[in-house]
Amino acid sequence: MTQAEIPLFPLNTVLFPGGVLPLRIFEPRYVDMVKRCMREGGVFGVALIQSGVEAGGAATVHSVGTLAQIVDFDQLPDKLLGITTRGTRRFRNSAVRVQDDGLHIATIELLPADPSAALPEEFQHYANLLEQALPQMGDFFKHLEPHYDDAAWVSGRLAEIMPLTLQDKQRLLEMNDPLERLHELQPLLRGAAAN
Description:
single chain, about 200 residues, alpha+beta, Archaeosine Trna-guanine Transglycosylase, Chain: A, domain 4, LON domain-like fold, 5-stranded mixed beta barrel, globular
């Protein structure tokens, strides 16, 4: 696969392809990154932090993340820049360097998209749950085109919104089969419901 360099946003969250992630942008390195992405129609990578911090310092990230495309922006009440992003493709980074301004730049290869798979009947209750829950979760889900019959879409949305550990979410992101991801979600969701 072809390698590319992209700006990287280390976060304490996991973004899945097809998902929506609102962000408050305040550090100069990320304000500049967002301006470049908007001007050039570019994307940036979102990757879960392994060690370090989100703001004001360096961070080491997991090797698998998701490309984020900016779909909306506005000025927030606190005068900061608010953006809404949508996850597009998963990637694997092979190297990360830090620029003088503190912006992380990753050398990546795109991972294959999840194979198309219809949602099996045994998981239909998850689609029903999402149909009820997503409209109640805020305006930024207006950027989400629902695909309640698609196993990859349903598994991604469940993994994003359910109260799972970040390590579990990262493990689910790294899976290449949406049906396997749904099977892995079952015991995790039962555990989350019991807590």
